[in-house]
Amino acid sequence: MRFSVGLPTCMEGMMYPVPFATSAQIVEIAQYADKLGYHSVWGNDHMTTQRYVRAEFPTPPNFWEILITLTYVAAQTTTLRVATGVLVPAMRRDIVVMAKQLATLDQFSGGRLMVGMGVGAYREEFEALQPGWKVQRGDVLEECVQALQVLFSQRIADWQGTYYAFKDVEMYPKPVQTPLPFYIGGNNANSIRRAALYGQGWMGAGMPPDQLFVHVKRLREIAAENGRDPDTIDIAPQMAACIDKNQEAAHQRFQNSQMYAHLVSLKATTLKDQAKSGAKFEDINLIGDGQTIIERVGKLRDAGASHISGILFTANTVEEFKDQMQYFAEEVIRYFEN
């Protein structure tokens, strides 16, 4: 079982207060993750502030561009892998430039890049960046992954699709990794299908083990039906985490955080399926004392998870964030290493 950290690259005003982390502190968190033995760090991708964040905070948040951030982080760490969690293709129209950036990052990091991709949580953000472009973001994502795989696998690449087109492109160097690992984010049926067909991993959001089991079963069926080995696909759900000395203390810490307020705000959109099920955030994430979290991770592993990716540690300061990382590593990761 692998464990990785969610970097607060574009999380101010959502999971974390405004302001939260400086550029130097982003690197500090990544270096600490490297020291503690986490597998990777995952950063998310936003370009403009959401309206509800503007309404709540008088100061604009810092949103760090993810590919440049990960390049710098890779240069400041040793074995730590770096990942986008998730990159949003619909906000990046020039696919050859995107491919060149990804390949360059994989080369400069020595093959440590993982590319999580998704449709993006906020349509308003897409509409701000691409006014008048009437598309289904999921279709853009699916075509983007296929076109990138052509660019990364063929010496001279051509593509003529619905959303992307290029002709006679010789793009070198290719990524170090073959294939460059793509993780598809999202909980719906289309996300699962895309991961089964095109991904090296699936990055779902927080969900109970029984729901994860059903999704993993379907993913494995689709992969096998299309000639892929299901065992090669990393099942990497993303979870929020809050660890403390007992359940009551952990719940109190979680409910007093900016993260909790943000998750409540997503009940009608990104987390609507979880909201419909009646599950509490404390029950579908890793909230509690060490033993409780160990038991929950064990159930997720039994349901098919191989990686708890981009863990969103509950914190209102960077020091609290690092304390949570250390506590989790000592109590939980150490258990699964034995």
Can you put this structure into words, describing what you see?
The protein is of the alpha/beta class and 338 residues long. The chain has one domain (2-6, 8-337): Luciferase-like domain (TIM Barrel). Helices cover 46% and strands 17% of the residues. The chain contains 14 helices and 12 strands. The chain has helices at 23-36, 51-56, 66-75, 95-108, 123-129, 137-153, 189-198, 209-225, 247-255, 258-265, 272-277, 281-284, 290-302, 318-337, and strands at residues 2-7, 40-43, 81-87, 113-117, 157-160, 165-169, 182-185, 201-203, 234-235, 238-243, 286-288, 307-313. Strands 9-8-7-4-3-2-1-12-10-11 form a 10-stranded parallel β-sheet. Helix 1 (23-36) runs parallel beside helix 14 (318-337), helix 6 (137-153) runs parallel beside helix 7 and helix 13 (290-302) crosses helix 14. The chain is globular. The mean pLDDT is 95.
Considering the protein shown, what is the CATH homologous superfamily?
Luciferase-like domain
Domain count: 1
Could you give the order of the helices and strands? EHEHHEHEHHEEEHEHEEHHHHEHEH
User: Into which percent range does the helicity of residues fall?
Assistant: 40-55%
Unreliable runs: none
CATH architecture label: Alpha-Beta Barrel
CA distance, first residue to last residue = 11 Å
Beta-strand fraction estimate? 15-25%
**Structural class by helix and strand composition:** alpha/beta
User: What coarse outline follows from CA principal-axis ratios?
Assistant: globular
Question: In CATH terms, what is the fold-level topology?
Answer: TIM Barrel
Highest CATH level, the class:
Alpha Beta
Number of helices: 14
